[in-house]
Design a protein that fits this description.
With 370 residues, the chain is an alpha+beta fold. 21% of the residues lie in helices and 36% in strands. A hairpin with a 4-residue loop joins strand 8 and strand 9.
Length: 370
């Protein structure tokens, strides 16, 4: 058998390595099949999908299936711009968070494509944008009116390599590779667009009264002001305090506020004696109440069944605050809060007669209601 020389072995090794790298490149390029090949052939465009102005967009209808387990429950959400205000098409009194809608408008009008593929040269199903055959694969459908024209975006498969989505318009002429902004901007259900009620700003120094109630008891909190005269003799050392250095001219009035609580049994209507409350516990409770953090709005015009689920048909706590809005205010303002069931995420709450149900950080009232 003929021996292979060193030079021949080196050439064989070089060829083998070259074949290895070629195969690795082919495998890598074919990760996403035909769609990745077409995407690479198309090149980058970085151009706007549509040349429209955000001011021209006056209507948006969308349905998003991103992160939805039950796609049967998904509803179309119609948003209409009347003059300078956006309204919810099914209920024009629905309080919308317009900042989220303005972001939608911005994304629609400024959407750019990093790749554009001729749709006739590929199979639309491979990209999740075959509206006729595989509509269930569509992640997001957005229709909108700009000027006198109607447009629709259909967003399909996610591409992890480019960190973007494949998308077609109503013309189906091209497949666009767009950034994830388009999905993020519309990844909402209806109540995500609900503008939550806000807690008013209350200065605890201007609190004039408080009442609270549970299903069993009611609590009335009132304060009394005690005024004492303090002379200079009260502020000097004991040895000097014994001398007659004080005078009426040196007196200063010191005021002390003491809060008292009266508890009434709701079933028997038996009222307890008025008793002073611990100032530290009361101050902490007031601070927690006026500082309630609203996390989100979870419902609007809820049914009785929903109110029962939220624990708000018969609230766990009803809290009524009376306060002055400023030092110069002449009339008291009243704020009523209804606190319902606690969950792992917080506590349900409604402010006054609002139609909005909120989720707030849970607060501890045991220090004053225990």
């Amino acid at each position: 058998m003929k021996k292979i020389g060193k030079r021949t072995r080196s050439m064989i090794l070089m060829v083998t390595v070259a074949v290895f790298f070629i195969l690795a490149y082919v495998v890598s390029s074919g990760i996403n099949g035909d769609e990745e090949e077409a995407s690479l052939e198309s090149g980058e465009t970085g151009e706007k999908v549509l040349d429209i102005s955000p001011d021209d967009i006056t209507q948006i209808v969308f349905s998003s299936k991103e992160d939805e387990e039950n796609t049967d429950s998904i509803q179309d959400i119609e948003l209409i711009k009347e003059e300078s205000e956006w309204i919810y098409g099914a209920d024009n009194e629905f309080p919308l968070d317009e900042s989220k809608i303005e972001n939608m408008v911005s994304v629609l009008s400024n959407l750019t494509s990093s790749d554009e593929i001729d749709s006739e040269s590929v199979n639309l199903e491979d990209y999740g944008v075959d509206v006729e055959k595989s509509y269930d694969d569509i992640v997001l459908t957005v229709s909108f009116k700009a000027g006198e024209n109607l447009y629709t975006y259909y967003v399909g498969n996610y591409n992890s390599i480019t960190d973007g989505y494949y998308m077609v318009t109503e013309t189906m002429d091209s497949i666009y590779m767009v950034e994830t902004d388009i999905v993020d901007a519309f990844n909402y259900d209806l109540y995500d667009l609900l503008l939550p009620d806000e807690m008013p700003e209350i200065n605890s120094d201007y609190l004039t009264g408080m009442a609270a109630a549970t299903a069993e008891k009611s609590y009335i909190f009132e304060y009394e002001i005690t005024t004492e005269a303090e002379t200079e003799a009260d502020t000097v050392e004991d040895t000097e305090a014994e001398s007659d250095t004080g005078s009426l001219d040196d007196e200063e009035l010191e005021s002390y506020i003491t809060w008292y609580r009266t508890v009434t049994d709701i079933e028997t209507n038996e009222q307890g004696e008025k008793e002073a409350v611990d100032s530290s516990s009361f101050g902490q409770a007031v601070s927690d109440i006026i500082g309630i953090a609203v996390n989100e709005a979870v419902d609007y015009k809820p049914s009785d069944d929903a109110l029962t689920e939220y624990g708000l048909i018969i609230p766990e706590y009803t809290i009524i605050l009376t306060y002055l809005e400023s030092e110069e205010a002449q009339e008291e303002t009243t704020l009523t809060l209804y606190l319902g069931s606690e969950t792992d995420e917080g506590t349900y709450m409604r402010i006054g007669d609002s139609d909005i149900i909120l989720l707030i950080d849970t607060i501890d009232l045991s220090g004053i209601l225990g």
